[in-house]
Amino acid sequence: MDIKTASAIRRLRLVSGPEAVSFLLLLVCSVLKRTTDFNAVPAMGMIHGVLFILYVIFWADAWNRTKWSLKTAALYFVLSVLPTGGFFAERRLKREAEDAVIASRARQEGKVTA
């Protein structure tokens, strides 16, 4: 995996957690708006909207660079619209990046010894 591909996965991973947290907070703010006088939905909605847009941009970049299958790309997109999906996306992306590093090191060791 080249550095640009690793960076694309890392960016997606770093935004997926905060995006999931903002989604959950937006849901809490929506409930509070309807049950109390507290209304943080406009502010939380804007924060979540910006994080979601960043997620989609980074998702598209990662899909383009990694050449994911349609199924994998769709999975990461669906995880972005589920309330806790960002946490699962972050975990899968971390595992994918670690596997790529291990494979890259194995290839380098194979070239050195061959």
TrEMBL record:
Every DUF3817 domain range: 9-95
Keyword tags: Cell membrane, Membrane, Transmembrane, Transmembrane helix
Signal peptide: none
Membrane spanning residue stretches: 39-60, 72-89
Cellular compartments per GO CC: plasma membrane
InterPro entries with a match to the protein in the record: DUF3817_TM
Keyword Cell membrane: yes
Topology relative to the membrane: Multi-pass membrane protein
Top-level taxon: Bacteria
Cell membrane listed as a keyword: yes
First-listed, main subcellular location of the protein, grouped into a coarse class: membrane
Record's subcellular location: Cell membrane
Pfam families linked: DUF3817
Protein name as catalogued: Membrane protein
Species annotation: Streptomyces resistomycificus
